[in-house]
Automatic annotation (TrEMBL):
Protein origin, superkingdom: Eukaryota
PANTHER family in the record: NUCLEOLAR PROTEIN OF 40 KDA, PROTEIN PIGMENT DEFECTIVE 338, CHLOROPLASTIC
GO biological process, one term: RNA stabilization
GO molecular function annotations of the record: RNA binding
Pfam families found in the cross-reference section: S1
Source species of the chain: Edaphochlamys debaryana
Lineage of the species this protein comes from: Eukaryota, Viridiplantae, Chlorophyta, core chlorophytes, Chlorophyceae
Domain S1 motif: 55-126, 179-247
Protein name listed in UniProt: S1 motif domain-containing protein
């Protein structure tokens, strides 16, 4: 792109058409595979008897490899599942054709089903990789460690589901939560956002770097570190995500950069004054 901009622009329509053709071909293959999986196999009975619960470790036989993924026979032919390309390995797989030989025994974990997809069974070997790319380098290692990695997957999934439950409970009470000052602990720091576990609810909230202070924050990690205790107020809720802010708690712009401890000490009085000025409810910062 940097070497010859005009050449890129001159061939833009041609390359866009090729990309679109490739995407449509992938979609057609994927839809054919989905249709094949839904017909001719007893997936519904397999699911109804509890053999395809999310997180279940299953063994099967490769029926075919396609551009969209690997089709696997389950339960001695009782059902069929699909390992899509993105769930084969943490390393990118463009096409699964020829990746495994039909008849090869595989082990995979069952993925959660989505709405409108009750009878399709999606599997993952990626979730069983001890290290990214193991499924492409040494699949037998993946199968040998499958029980251990499946247990890790289930533990992480249960943890994620619990976080979602706590966030859902918080969101249901958002009318009350918006009039409260929240305490929390920083659990993760990224350049543009900080993850905060709220003490009272256990929910996980996001504190964007621009909502830390009225003055410019180059990186969230310049102000906050994992383990730091914070006080903040609810900014807004978007979908399942909770956003908080410390910005309104500053008595002077930049206080969070100079002395966050002092901001937290004065937070109660400052927050009450802010609520009063806002008409007893927090304005939608950042909306």
């Amino acid at each position: 792109m940097l070497r010859n901009l005009q050449l890129v622009y001159d061939k833009a329509e041609e390359m866009a058409a090729k990309w679109l053709k490739k995407q449509r071909r992938r979609e057609r293959v994927y839809l054919r595979v989905r249709g094949w999986l839904g017909a001719g196999f007893g997936n519904k009975a397999f699911i109804d008897c509890g053999r395809a619960e999310a997180g279940t470790l299953v063994e099967g036989t490769v029926l075919a490899t396609t551009p969209a993924g690997i089709i696997v026979s389950l339960g001695a032919g009782a059902a069929a599942g699909l390992i899509t390309n993105k769930h084969i390995s943490a390393h990118q797989v463009e096409s699964a054709v020829g990746l495994l030989t039909p008849g090869t025994q595989v082990r995979a974990i069952v993925l959660p089903r989505t709405k409108g997809n009750d009878c399709s069974i999606f599997l993952s070997t990626k979730a069983l990789e001890p290290s990214p790319g193991d499924m492409l380098r040494e699949p037998q290692l993946v199968y040998d460690m499958a029980e251990e990695m499946a247990a890790v997957y289930r533990a992480l999934r249960n943890e994620e589901m619990e976080k979602r439950r706590l966030n859902h409970t918080f969101i249901r009470k958002s009318g009350v939560q918006g009039r409260k000052l929240h305490k929390g602990v920083v659990v993760e720091v990224k350049p543009h956002v900080v993850m905060v576990e709220l003490a009272e609810s256990g929910a996980t909230a996001l504190l964007r770097k621009e909502m830390i202070s009225a003055e410019c924050v180059e990186a969230a990690g310049d102000v906050l570190k994992v383990g730091d205790k914070v006080r903040a107020c609810l900014m807004y809720i978007y979908g399942r995500r909770i956003f908080i802010t410390t910005r309104p708690l500053e008595t002077m712009p930049g206080d969070m950069l100079r002395d966050p401890g002092r901001v937290y000490e004065q937070a109660g009085a400052v927050f009450e004054a802010w609520l009063e000025n806002a008409g007893t409810r927090a304005p939608a910062w950042g909306m």
